[in-house]
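quick q for whoever's on today - can somebody do inverse folding on this one?? i tried earlier but teh output was garbage lol. tokens:
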């Protein structure tokens, strides 16, 4: 505090000059003397209360600018070394000093206020006492040091949620946006940091956009300073959470994606991570899903995906998942070498989100192309799923079973999947606590049982092998679904039984015919005039469109399909000749085909799940 002591001594000594009138009032002279004494014992003095604070207050409210400088410098140096919750008696003199016309007083007072604004309680009290107005005035100062300290203080104040809206409505955003372009890197860092802190709510993001922040933030992505890059990338990532803002970005910032792709190769890990997250949020829209691939973003994402640093893995996996939503991106992603890294991440037990992103991406990649389905199976995805699915968290189970359901749509892969023993893990999951896991597992079994494209009765031997086990086998699973209160599950069960009977496999037909669990319930559904109520818990992801097709039970449409299938089962079992393809086409949606026809809905649901913070 040498500068403070020197300034005080200068004021004190001038009192003794005989060439002009005394400059200090009596109380000011005493305050200077007291402060000099306290400064000599600064290590044991509490300047935030009692006589030390009283001395500083007297100097702060003096009309003598030198005394104000002494007080401001003292506050700045004291708060640099010690920050604690303070009261109005401490903040009032500092806020008064902020209104000084002297640049040195402004600089030191804003530094002191910025130091105190690190404390949570102080953040609120500073704003409550009207601290924003003088800070905004100082942001407009031509002095770079004053600008820097004032913006730094606002940055600290903006870290408290209760202050964000007040700052947004105070008129601070326009000067903050202007100062983000400052040639002084310290001012630029503080300003972009403050803008970032203002992007954590919908209302404030809109205020920022209205203040013209978007083009400033985008232009600063090319800053040589990694802190500025980080603040701007993260702010844009938050802004891109809103669909309306993504449209504005698409219309006004054609170089945004290219800049973010370049930042994924930054020397800073935190910048790489935020660039991938920003692209993830942008990729909620189809335009950006395509543009990321066009901008050669896949190779950078692949590199981050194979990192050993969890935030990079998580951000890149989330981004690739969104990019994979677009059908045109499926083959480019596979051709870029993503399959094996994605499959490896299925066993990433350290983080459930990474597992979910990886399996969801594989499911998206399998959605539109037989070639891609085959490549995914060949790469070992199904084998990994089989080994892991019974042990992973429920959310991951839901995604894994949905992926198998999509793969099982391929007539060329059904036999291979059955030979791999996937039924052994799907059957236990039809009794999961999660209705989505139940439904997706049943959808996969239904798709595997589908007769289309299969001729040999031997293909169905796998279903005989699992008729009674594990966990009661196909037999108990079909019984649970037939007796479910969810009409969707009933529909899946009777449709699957029709497929199994149509196979012509004698043992399988006898297993069904001789079942005292299945036949009575099939007869009940065949004679029923009203549909069972759909479950209020929710229907499986793979069957959402199916359940909606007969949600209105009064129409009897869903009930009619279930009844028709039940009657057909009885007709077959009572001895009518079974000829492949002899069953009439019905209007019901097969478990597998509902996955295929619902492809766009599935993509939309993924986009909705990843809107903000990430985040997921």
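ok took a stab at it. sequence:
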């Amino acid at each position: 505090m040498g500068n403070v002591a020197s300034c005080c001594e200068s004021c004190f000594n001038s009192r003794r000059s005989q060439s002009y009138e005394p400059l200090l009032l009596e109380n000011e002279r005493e305050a200077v003397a007291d402060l000099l004494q306290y400064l000599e014992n600064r290590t044991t003095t509490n300047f935030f209360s009692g006589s030390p604070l009283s001395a500083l207050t007297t100097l702060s409210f003096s009309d003598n600018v030198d005394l104000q400088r002494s007080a401001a410098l003292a506050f700045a140096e004291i708060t640099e070394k010690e920050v604690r919750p303070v009261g109005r008696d401490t903040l009032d003199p500092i806020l008064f000093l902020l209104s000084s016309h002297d640049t040195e007083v402004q600089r030191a007072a804003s530094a002191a206020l910025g130091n105190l604004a690190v404390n949570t309680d102080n953040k609120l009290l500073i704003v409550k006492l009207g601290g924003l107005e003088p800070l905004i005035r100082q942001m407009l100062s031509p002095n770079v040091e004053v600008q820097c300290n004032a913006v730094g203080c606002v940055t600290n104040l903006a870290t408290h949620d209760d202050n964000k809206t007040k700052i947004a409505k105070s008129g601070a955003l326009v000067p903050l946006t202007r100062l983000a372009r400052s040639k002084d890197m310290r001012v630029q860092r503080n300003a972009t940091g403050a803008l970032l802190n203002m992007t954590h709510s919908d209302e404030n993001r809109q205020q920022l956009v209205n203040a013209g922040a978007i083009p400033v933030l985008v232009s600063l992505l090319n800053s040589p300073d990694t802190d500025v890059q980080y603040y701007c990338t993260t702010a844009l990532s938050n802004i891109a959470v809103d669909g309306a803002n993504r449209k504005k970005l698409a219309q006004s910032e054609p170089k945004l994606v290219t800049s973010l792709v370049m930042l994924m190769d930054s020397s800073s890990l935190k910048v790489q991570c935020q660039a991938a997250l920003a692209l993830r949020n942008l990729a909620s829209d189809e335009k950006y899903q395509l543009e990321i691939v066009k901008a050669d973003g896949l190779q950078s994402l692949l590199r981050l995906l194979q990192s050993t640093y969890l935030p990079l893995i998580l951000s890149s996996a989330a981004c690739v998942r969104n990019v994979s939503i677009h059908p045109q991106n499926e083959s480019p992603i596979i051709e870029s070498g993503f399959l094996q890294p994605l499959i490896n991440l299925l066993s990433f037990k350290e983080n459930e989100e990474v597992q979910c992103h990886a399996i969801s991406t594989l499911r998206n990649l399998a959605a539109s192309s037989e070639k891609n389905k085959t490549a995914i199976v060949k790469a070992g995805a199904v084998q990994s799923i089989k080994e892991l699915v019974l042990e992973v968290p429920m959310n991951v189970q839901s995604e894994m079973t949905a992926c198998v359901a999509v793969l099982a749509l391929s007539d060329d892969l059904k036999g291979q999947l059955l030979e791999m023993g996937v039924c052994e893990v799907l059957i236990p999951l039809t009794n999961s606590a999660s209705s989505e896991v139940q439904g997706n597992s049943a959808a996969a079994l239904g798709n595997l049982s589908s007769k289309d494209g299969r001729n040999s009765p031997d293909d169905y031997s796998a279903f005989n092998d699992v008729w009674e086990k594990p966990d009661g086998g196909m037999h108990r699973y079909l019984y649970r679904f037939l007796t479910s209160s969810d009409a969707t599950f009933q529909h899946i069960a009777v449709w699957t039984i029709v497929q199994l009977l149509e196979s012509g496999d004698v043992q399988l037909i006898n297993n069904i015919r001789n079942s005292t669990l299945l036949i009575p319930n099939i007869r009940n559904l065949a004679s029923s005039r009203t549909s069972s109520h759909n479950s209020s818990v929710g229907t499986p992801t793979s069957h959402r469109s199916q359940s909606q097709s007969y949600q209105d039970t009064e129409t009897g449409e869903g009930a009619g399909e279930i009844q028709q299938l039940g009657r057909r089962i009885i007709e077959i079992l009572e001895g009518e000749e079974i000829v492949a393809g002899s069953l009439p086409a019905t209007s019901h949606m097969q478990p597998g085909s509902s996955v295929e026809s619902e492809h766009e809905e599935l993509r939309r649901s993924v986009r909705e799940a990843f809107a903000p913070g990430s985040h997921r």
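fwiw Residues 346 and 483 are 34 Å apart (CA to CA). also Confidence is low (pLDDT under 50) at residues 9-22, 530-556, 577-616. so keep that in mind when u check it
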